[in-house]
Amino acid sequence: MPIRTTINKGRVPVKIYTDQVEPGALNQLANIAQLPIVHSHIAAMPDVHLGIGATVGSVIPTLGAVIPAAVGVDIGCGMNAVRLTLTASQLPDSLRRIRSAIEAAVPVGFDMHNRPTVQRKAVSQLDAVLDEILGKHPGLTKMQKPHTWTRQLGTLGGGNHFIELCVDENQQVWVMLHSGSRGIGNVIGRYFISLAKKDAERHQLHLPDRDLAYFSEGAAHFDDYVQAVEWAQEYALTNRREMMRLIVQAIRPHLPDFSVSKEAINCHHNYVAREEHFGKQVFLTRKGAIAAARDQLGIIPGSMGAKSFIVRGKGNPESFCSCAHGAGRTMSRSQAKRQFSRADMEAQTQGVECRKDKGVLDEIPGAYKDIDEVMANQSDLVEVVHTLKQVVCVKG
After folding, report:
1. Helices 120-136 and 222-251 meet at what angle, rounded to 10?
2. What residues are labeled active site?
3. For the chain, percent of residues with pLDDT exceeding 70
């Protein structure tokens, strides 16, 4: 589907790929469009919904500036998926052992490894850059215990993060996961968001929302933030690779002999990158969106009871070569807990080996948009390569 709605309430237009946008999200999009640093237009994906400052599911091109709150605090959050040389018929009738093996191998929530599991070389490379960042901003150390981040490499975290075993339309088995830069990314995000707000106040910068405070090139903290956010994005990639290694290792004893046939993609959907669009070099922030350049593979997950998709980008310039990052929420976590019951969770996740207790009610499929509708609304942006349905889901 082409662009469904365009709003013109700011310096630049907002082009939206859905008719289903809550009023609060529309206001946020209009606020971003007022900023003097925005180039060309804002693109809102089909899964767009209310965020903090910037709307989740928005793509924001900025000239010589970055908005820390638009990147957010789960810097580099994204997806990884690999296909195994197994078919659905080779899976055991009961998948409980598979789920238990994954849960034993990959800490979830606030848990972490007792010691680093990643190769020392990978940790050393990250450590060298982090030391440089901390040297300039010792306040970051106070917010994160020294070397906690090394033990959080290869861990899932909480919220909407997950690990799944899926089956595609050809009955091939996949492992798919969703996670980001863990505690250290959160610390970096909060720290620089606070600095940006203080800078805006000091320079009496007029903003439609103080959460949209930004650093301009040449400003005191611009280079430091760019370095820190790029570090966190690399950390998130490494975290997903390590989790995938641990998962594949953990499920091997419970399945027939297999190999990994290919990695579909390891991609961010909360990040900023330097790209060229509409004749300008910009900092492109994808807040709840993935890159969808022509022939680029991506992953669009549904909720824990719905389908997910491996997609190929069409390189649509109007979306800044981007597409949706998932189904997108239709209600808050607290509202979902009030509205749904454990019986609802059991009904909506039928056939999936997963937690079905009250502790995960905020992630019930009914709290999310219809993933088929989201996909239909972005047929101009991506084509479906594989359709996946989960059979095991581990939540954070």
Report:
1. 160
2. 325
3. 99
pLDDT tens readout for residues 252-274: 999 999 999 876 689 999 999 99
Q: Specify whether the CB–CB gap between 14 and 55 falls below 8 A.
A: no
**At residue 110, does pLDDT exceed 80?**
yes
Closest CA to 72 of 302, 227, 229: 229
Terminal Cα distance for the chain, rounded: 34
Contact 213, 69 (CB under 8 A): yes
Is residue 367 within 8 Å of 329, Cβ to Cβ?
yes
Among 384, 267, 368, 381, smallest CA distance to 16 is for 381
Query: Is residue 60 classed exposed, middle or buried when 0-12, 13-18 and 19+ CB atoms within 10 A define those classes?
Result: buried
Instruction: Give residue for tokens 């994005």.
Output: 233
Cβ atoms 266, 241 nearer than 8 A:
yes
User: Which are the contacts of 163, defined by CB distance < 8 A and separation ≥ 6?
Assistant: 102, 106, 156, 175, 176, 177, 178, 243, 247, 393, 394
Residue 380 near residue 314, CB atoms below 8 Å? yes
